[in-house]
Amino acid sequence: MVLICLISIVSGVAQLIAPAFVLSMVGASASASALHFFAIVGMFMALFGGMVLHAIYSAYPNLIAIRWGAMQKLGAFVAVGLGVIQGVFAPLALGVAFFDLFSGLLFLYYLKTLPGHEAA
Q: How far is 29 from 53, CA to CA, in rounded Å?
């Protein structure tokens, strides 16, 4: 989970700083509005990655933050998958989508395995 959080932070910051480069990697056009909104998405990726990382290392359990992090990852899976289906992204972006699906499911599994939180 820590590695997924770190990947989310680094890739989100990269997307925030260099949205044109990241958009080119997933085969999308880079209009001014696409660059702007893609950078905003990168900011939220970095923030959610940091939030879940903080929740993991917190002295106090923060299951809500991990649950919302899982929802962000699952939502990203749907959004990127729809982007591929609609031709916004190249099929290569499905790798990103499935990484987000795996991440979201792993976060939910982590919640389920915490002692005393089987119903999380």
A: 32
CA distance 112 to 22: 34
DSSP state of 120: -
User: DSSP per residue over 28-69, as a string?
Assistant: ----HHHHHHHHHHHHHHHHHHHHHHHHHH-SS--HHHHHHH
Tens of pLDDT, residues 86-111: 999 999 999 999 999 999 999 999 99
CB of 34 closer than 8 Å to CB of 85: no
Rounded CA-CA distance 3/79 in Å is 22
Q: Check: pTM over 0.90? Answer yes or no.
A: no
Q: Inform me whether the pLDDT recorded for 28 exceeds 90.
A: no
